């Protein structure tokens, strides 16, 4: 194989300093088109008295069922009323109904979701049970009952719709709040003396913007369809007052004689619902984009033919080979060196422990192998290979993520999207790596993966949301996701730290079984020498970004050479003695 030399070009790029959700959303063309259309419709409807020169109720029997003309841009209806005028004035009624339902949906759903997620305990159980009961009630039946009690009009039924449907939003807000409540920054805010109200509205709610906007957009389309359906049945706005749904009903009565009349009224409803849907889709994409685009230094790797003697690919015995890896970060005008000239190799089926105290550079090293560091990272190496793939070539790394090298994280809930079920998320990964599989085959593969990580009742787990899983169960799901692409190397970043002792033992046994059954190599990042002694074949001891000692586990435990290694072993005497 021809040798390759990789050099790093440091380029300063002017990028936005912040990457807020709205900023990402407004850079999406689909979102801009949808927002532009909705704003245009709202402005035209609000300005109906100015835009339209006709009264929506005035009849002109001389121009009944007219096609579009210079005087009537969209023609006239069966009574000679101007269609444009009725669309604009009717839009006020329709958009008022949607807006009212949306406000109720948002206020009630967000409020009870935050309350349940942040408070927990009995309050959470009561709210969650109530939500499940409300969501099981047929919405249309209740809305019809409300109309029977309060009479015609849009206010009562749309408020009812917002209340009945807000349970879905509340569940999503609750799940995100539960996750955010455990974040270190929330704990720091509590220690600083901030009250619960300020923590919720200052530190938790802003991080829920993306999921909330997605749900609001989808609900707005449903609310418009419900409002139009009620008006079509003359259960809301009463004729001759215009509304979009009512106009569809009027068009249906003369559809055989004058089919054109259905086009403007049905078209504006369809386009508005599509706009809400596209906005929700764009919001979802913006919400889950995690790539940081901060002002600073970007790293570009140049690939060029090398002469004789340059670094070549890893040897046939090693699945991963790293030589002279350096990692730094650009902070303002200062470059901070984190990892300094480290080298190591991993053979197929070998479990290598990378151990050291917090801040020693362990996790950064694992992320650098998969090109997952932020844009202000500076990564150089003499050579870095996974089999015959150059890990200094970002384009090549993308091809092996998940298939060649996979990664599991310290906190499993961070890796699982609270909005989607386990089956949806696991199926998405399976489909990504096996595009030829049918829907049934994807589900079968998902069940097999869950069984392989010792999950009982996999069919049931596939239907569950992440917040319904225990920590150990969630970690098993994350491991199943990592195995979906049949990787040959697994980077496990402290996979047992967030779990209790008994569950830790189960996860370690699972990793050991996976190594034996798949001959999979594992780079285990940890600060726990007990885990190293239990699972690893060899160990790398890291301090201040440097590897200070390496060797087989038994030899390192019995005859440690470096003072730092001896101090780490001394900090866990019972674990060391129990292991040996």
Care to describe what's here?
The chain is of the alpha/beta class and 580 residues long. The chain has two domains: 267 residues, MetI-like fold; 229 residues, Rossmann fold. It is built from 24 helices and 13 strands. The strands form three sheets. Strands 9-10-11-5-12-13 form a six-stranded mixed beta sheet, with helices on both faces. Strands 3, 4, 6, 7 and 8 form a five-stranded antiparallel beta sheet that branches. It has a two-stranded antiparallel sheet with strand order 1-2. Helix 4 runs parallel beside helix 7. The longest helix has 37 residues. The protein is elongated, with a radius of gyration of 30 Å. It starts with a strand and ends with a helix.
């Amino acid at each position: 194989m021809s040798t390759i030399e990789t050099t790093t070009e440091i380029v300063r790029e002017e990028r936005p300093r912040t990457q807020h959700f709205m900023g990402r959303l407004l850079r999406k063309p689909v979102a801009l088109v949808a927002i532009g259309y909705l704003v245009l419709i709202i402005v035209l409807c609000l300005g109906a008295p100015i835009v339209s020169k006709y009264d929506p109720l005035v009849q002109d029997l001389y121009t009944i069922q007219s096609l579009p003309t210079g005087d009537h841009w969209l023609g006239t209806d069966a009574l000679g009323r101007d269609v444009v005028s009725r669309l604009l004035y009717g839009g006020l009624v329709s958009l008022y109904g949607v807006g009212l339902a949306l406000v109720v949906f948002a206020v009630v759903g967000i409020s009870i979701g935050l309350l349940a997620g942040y408070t927990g305990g009995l309050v959470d159980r009561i709210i969650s049970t109530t939500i499940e009961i409300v969501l099981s009630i047929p919405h249309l039946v209740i809305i019809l009952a409300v109309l029977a009690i309060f009479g015609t009009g849009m206010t009562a039924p749309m408020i009812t719709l917002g209340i009945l449907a807000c349970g879905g939003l509340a569940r999503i807000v609750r799940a995100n709040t539960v996750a955010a409540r455990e974040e270190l920054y929330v704990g720091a805010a509590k220690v600083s003396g901030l009250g619960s109200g300020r923590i919720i509205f200052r530190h938790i709610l802003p991080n829920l913007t993306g999921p909330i906007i997605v749900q609001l957009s989808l609900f707005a389309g449903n609310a418009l369809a419900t409002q139009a359906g009620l008006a079509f049945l003359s259960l809301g706005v009463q004729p001759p007052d215009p509304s979009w749904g009512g106009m569809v009903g009027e068009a249906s009565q003369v559809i055989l004689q004058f089919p054109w009349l259905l086009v403007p009224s049905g078209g504006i409803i369809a386009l508005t619902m599509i706009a809400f849907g596209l906005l929700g889709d764009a919001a979802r994409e913006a919400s889950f984009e995690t790539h940081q685009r901060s002002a600073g230094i970007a790293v570009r790797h140049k690939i060029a033919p090398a002469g004789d003697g340059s670094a070549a690919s890893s040897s046939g015995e090693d699945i991963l080979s790293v030589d002279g890896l350096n990692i730094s970060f650009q902070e303002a005008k200062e470059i901070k060196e984190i990892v300094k000239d480290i080298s190591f190799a991993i053979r197929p089926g070998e479990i290598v422990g990378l151990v050291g105290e917090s801040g020693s550079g362990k996790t950064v090293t694992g992320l650098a192998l998969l090109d997952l560091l932020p844009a202000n990272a500076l990564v150089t190496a003499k050579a870095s290979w996974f089999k015959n793939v150059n890990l200094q070539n970002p384009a090549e790394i993308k091809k092996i993520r998940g298939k060649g090298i996979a990664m599991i994280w310290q906190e499993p809930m961070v890796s699982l999207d609270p909005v989607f079920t386990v089956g949806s998320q696991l199926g998405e990964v399976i489909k990504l790596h096996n595009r030829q599989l049918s829907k049934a085959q994807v589900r079968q593969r998902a069940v097999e993966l869950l069984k392989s990580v010792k999950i009982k009742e996999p069919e049931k787990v596939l239907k569950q949301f992440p917040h319904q899983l225990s920590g150990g169960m969630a970690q098993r799901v994350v491991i199943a996701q990592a195995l979906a692409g049949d990787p040959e190397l697994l980077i496990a970043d402290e996979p047992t730290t967030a779990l209790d002792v008994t569950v830790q033992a189960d996860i370690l046994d699972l990793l050991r079984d996976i190594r034996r059954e798949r001959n999979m190599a594992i780079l285990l990042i940890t600060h726990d020498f007990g885990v190293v002694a239990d699972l690893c074949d060899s160990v790398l001891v890291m301090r201040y970004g440097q590897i200070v000692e390496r060797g087989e586990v038994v030899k390192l435990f019995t005859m440690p050479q470096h003072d730092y290694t001896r101090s780490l072993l001394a900090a866990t005497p019972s674990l060391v003695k129990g292991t040996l």
